[in-house]
Specification:
Blueprint (H helix, E strand, L loop, with lengths): L3 H5 L10 H32 L2 H7 L6 H13 L3 H8 L14 H15 L4 E5 L1 H7 L10 H20 L6 E6 L4 E9 L4 E5 L3 E2 L9 E3 L1
Parallel strand pairs: 1-4, 2-6
Antiparallel strand pairs: 2-3, 3-4, 3-5
């Protein structure tokens, strides 16, 4: 027989629950787990501050940020994803639903979409491994979605497609979506046949600082 947790977590079933009840449901499902996570986190913060030398060999400069180090180590120790752990630490978001992370498959679909439209100006779009890591980073605040990525490349092509194609080899710039505050620094590389637009990283940050040109959409 299925447990209540397994039953309520089945695809689509949870979506039928009124929003005002979801907080109570998530608290019932995750309350004990989250309390343990908070206890471990706060104990670790206190220990790092009291005995910083104990952690220097392992964490280096991270000892200067006890909360960051404690968050990272506690999440790893308890098998909780960094994004979920960041959510746990904030009372306002602790029992809210968390969106699924963007996967390699998701990113491949976005890349195919971007390739298709930028191929018209002789550009191939590529994402680095760091891009995949950073797209799911909790420091983005609100999760970056596939829809937001698709919009960014679609609007960038409409406004700057021909301009980017003329920027030349090793040119660097930043795709900047003013509606979502998403920033994608990129470099153009000539591979002998076409330009590769290599998206180096991504972050959601208002007033993103850079010395490179910003292509705003």
């Amino acid at each position: 027989m299925k447990s209540f947790k397994e039953y309520i977590s089945e695809d689509g079933l949870k979506d039928l629950i009124p929003k005002k009840w979801k907080h109570a449901l998530n608290r019932a499902l995750h309350g004990k787990k989250y309390k343990k996570a908070l206890d471990v986190y706060h104990d670790m913060v206190r220990d790092i501050r009291k005995n910083p030398d104990r952690y220097k060999g392992v964490a280096g400069a991270l000892v200067m940020n006890p909360k960051g180090l404690a968050r990272s180590k506690a999440a790893s120790m308890l098998g909780i994803k960094p994004r979920e752990f960041t959510k746990i630490l904030d009372r306002k978001t602790r029992y809210e639903d968390i969106n699924e992370e963007i996967t390699k498959v998701d990113l491949a679909q976005v890349e195919r979409f971007a390739d298709k439209i930028f191929a018209k100006v002789g550009i191939d779009v590529e994402f680095t491994r760091h891009f995949l890591d950073r797209v799911n980073d909790p420091r983005n605040g609100k999760e970056i979605s596939v829809a937001e990525l698709t919009r960014l490349f679609k609007q960038t092509y409409k406004k700057y497609g021909k301009k980017i194609a003329k920027m030349g080899d090793d040119a660097e710039a930043v795709l900047n979506d003013m509606q979502t505050d998403i920033n994608v620094p990129f470099v153009l590389n000539w591979d002998g046949k076409e330009f590769d637009l290599i998206s180096k990283t991504i972050m959601r940050k208002k007033d993103f600082k850079t010395n490179d040109p910003k292509l705003k959409v």
